[in-house]
């Protein structure tokens, strides 16, 4: 028997892949299962177009079987199978994707898409196996063939026996080394978990014999092993279901099952788009700040599926930083079962989806604000900081929408109000949107600088977070009203009163002021008579753009 060499480029690719492309070994199972699913899709498609075939859904499935003692893991399917030539062409040349060729030949119409556009998935099996054997019988053929390879040094193909149409992939799982253990790929519970994690929503049943302890008949405390074939995947993804079929609990369960968080989400967003790019998404806005949210370990991102197959755990390109708290997933048939983040980053479809999602989240937050103020405030207490950060960092494109989502504590209402609410009740003679910064509402309330503004009956927004002032500095105006700190020199109020009066008072007390200026020379720039004080004898004010609070922050910054 002559050993065939992999085509040269395949050999290089294979080495590279085994060693580097995939960071997690466990995904080999996802790849093999997705190939099986593709193969069943193909036979299904043939049956749709060929009257002599009929597709009985029950006889199509994927089976995962373990032989722990012999370190064998088998994945078999009742899909379309491969001829000798196909084994040679599909498994002998890595970069050639059989799925793509099939697509072209049959001019697949929409709705019959086949996962997998890259021809490297199969080879991921070599990450966990020394030897991979593929036994296959193609639809419409009497002979079966066995393809076998121990990695980059080549493969053999020989005739063999196989009763039914389909493919069986046999992996001889690697022996453990000093650094690495491969035993987990022979453990039922682990395989089950991997299938659940990556292939839960494969359309066809993934079966596995599962051994469980159960109470011995007639006994109350004696257990026995009981083996039973189970279907591991749930098959119909919740995101493909009709919104009207789903209850709030369904979404909550999904949130739990996916470990998106330990809290209950404040809101779910279910999106089905059938436009320039087709995708389904389920997004959640959590109630609480995730425990690791402000740590370096926290990674924003959504799970990304290509037609039901998980291809990335945290696709960060799908979310802007200021929505980094959003959890959830996106499934698109228009994305390829891709291998690298780098390629995805430049994917046009992905960019479109990301833009779409950003708009959806924004509008959903807007309607939450409008329809369920309590919930919105709860949300805002957890994540308002992010929105302000968004205004600050992404002002070019999103400031207009994000500013509508901002809330600040109001001197008048004694609660959070929106900028729109503030501006809509401004008296006609009020020129500015006033704000005052401080550590707490109570402390701000006692600031002498607030007196004159409050006396005028104007509302003040209380800023207690360091980002607040930076955010409004970025906005500059809201509905053409400028933001103004109550501690700035010109409040736009004094002008009404006669300047002469102040001047003469200042002249009368010139000696006193000079004396004070002298003593405080390294602390203040000037000492003046103030019109804004009522109950307080003195206050500090600034004459530039930077307020006292901002100065404090700037001083704590390094550099
Ligand atoms: P891709 O799935 O992206 O095409 P793979 O490396 O995963 O790339 O698989 C290569 C090709 O091998 C597939 O396109 C398919 O033609 C063939 N193949 C792999 N596994 C099976 C299977 N279980 N049944 C039928 N054909 C298969
Ligand atoms: Mg594949």
TrEMBL record:
SUPFAM superfamilies in alphabetical order: ATPase domain of HSP90 chaperone/DNA topoisomerase II/histidine kinase, HSP90 C-terminal domain, Ribosomal protein S5 domain 2-like
Positions contributing to ATP binding: 31, 35, 77, 82, 90, 96-98, 117-122, 167, 341
Signal peptide region: none
Pfam families reported for this sequence: HATPase_c_3, HSP90
Molecular function terms from GO: ATP binding; ATP hydrolysis activity; ATP-dependent protein folding chaperone; unfolded protein binding
Keyword Transmembrane helix: no
Localization per Swiss-Prot or TrEMBL: Cytoplasm
Protein's UniProt keywords contain Ligase: no
Stretch list, region A: 1-341
This protein's GO CC annotations: cytoplasm
UniProt keyword annotations, A-Z: ATP-binding, Chaperone, Cytoplasm, Nucleotide-binding, Stress response
The family this protein is said to belong to: Belongs to the heat shock protein 90 family.
Function summary: Molecular chaperone. Has ATPase activity.
Self-association and partners: Homodimer.
Designated name of the protein: Chaperone protein HtpG
Organism the protein comes from: Aneurinibacillus migulanus
Lineage of the organism: Bacteria, Bacillati, Bacillota, Bacilli, Bacillales
């Amino acid at each position: 028997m002559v050993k065939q060499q992999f085509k040269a480029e395949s050999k290089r690719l294979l080495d590279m892949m085994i060693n580097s492309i995939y960071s997690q070994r466990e995904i080999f199972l996802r790849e093999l299962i997705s190939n099986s699913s593709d193969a069943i899709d193909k036979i299904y498609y043939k049956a749709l177009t060929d009257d002599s075939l009929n597709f009985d859904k029950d006889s199509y499935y994927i089976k995962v079987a373990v032989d722990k003692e012999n370190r064998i893991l088998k994945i078999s399917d009742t899909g379309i199978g491969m001829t000798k030539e196909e084994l040679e062409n599909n498994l002998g040349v890595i970069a050639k994707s059989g799925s793509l060729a099939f697509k072209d030949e049959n001019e697949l119409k929409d709705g019959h898409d086949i996962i997998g556009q890259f021809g490297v998935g199969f080879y991921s099996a070599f990450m966990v196996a020394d030897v991979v054997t593929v036994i296959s019988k193609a639809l419409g053929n009497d002979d079966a063939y066995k393809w076998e390879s121990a990695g980059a040094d080549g493969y053999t193909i020989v005739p063999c026996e196989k009763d039914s149409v389909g493919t069986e992939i046999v992996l001889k799982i690697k022996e453990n080394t000093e650094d690495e253990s491969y035993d987990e790929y022979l453990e039922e519970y682990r395989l089950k978990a991997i299938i659940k994690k990556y292939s839960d929503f494969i359309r066809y049943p993934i079966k596995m014999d599962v051994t469980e302890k159960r109470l011995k008949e007639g006994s109350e405390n004696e257990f026995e092993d009981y083996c039973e074939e189970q279907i591991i995947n749930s098959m119909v993804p919740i995101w493909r279901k009709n919104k009207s079929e789903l209850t709030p609990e369904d979404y909550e369960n999904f949130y739990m099952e996916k470990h998106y968080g330990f809290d209950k989400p404040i809101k779910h967003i279910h999106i089905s788009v059938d436009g320039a790019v087709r995708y389904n998404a389920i997004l959640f806005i959590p109630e609480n700040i995730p425990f690791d949210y402000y740590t370096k370990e926290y990674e924003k991102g959504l799970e990304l599926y290509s037609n039901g197959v998980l291809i990335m755990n945290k696709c960060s390109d799908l979310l802007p930083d200021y929505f980094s708290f959003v959890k959830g997933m996106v499934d698109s048939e228009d994305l390829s079962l891709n291998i690298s983040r780098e390629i995805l980053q430049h994917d046009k479809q992905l960019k479109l989806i990301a833009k779409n999602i950003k708009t959806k989240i924004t509008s959903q937050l807007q309607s939450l604000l409008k329809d369920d103020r309590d919930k919105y405030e709860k949300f805002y207490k957890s994540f308002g900081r992010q929105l302000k950060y968004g205004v600050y960092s992404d002002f070019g494109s999103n400031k207009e929408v994000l500013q509508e989502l901002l809330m600040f504590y109001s001197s008048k209402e004694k609660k959070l109000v929106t900028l729109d609410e503030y501006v809509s009740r401004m008296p006609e003679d009020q020129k500015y949107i006033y704000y005052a910064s401080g550590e707490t509402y109570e402390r701000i309330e006692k600031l002498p600088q607030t007196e004159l503004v409050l006396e005028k009956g104007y509302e003040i927004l209380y800023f207690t977070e360091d980002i607040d002032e930076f955010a409004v500095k970025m906005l500059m105006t809201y509905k053409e009203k400028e933001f103004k700190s109550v501690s700035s020199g010109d409040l736009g109020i004094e002008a009404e009163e006669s300047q002469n009066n102040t001047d003469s008072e200042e002249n009368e007390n010139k000696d006193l002021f000079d004396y004070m200026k002298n003593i405080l020379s390294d602390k203040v720039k000037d000492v003046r008579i103030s019109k804004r004080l009522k109950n307080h004898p003195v206050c500090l004010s600034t004459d530039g753009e930077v307020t006292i609070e901002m100065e404090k922050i700037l001083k704590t910054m390094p550099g």
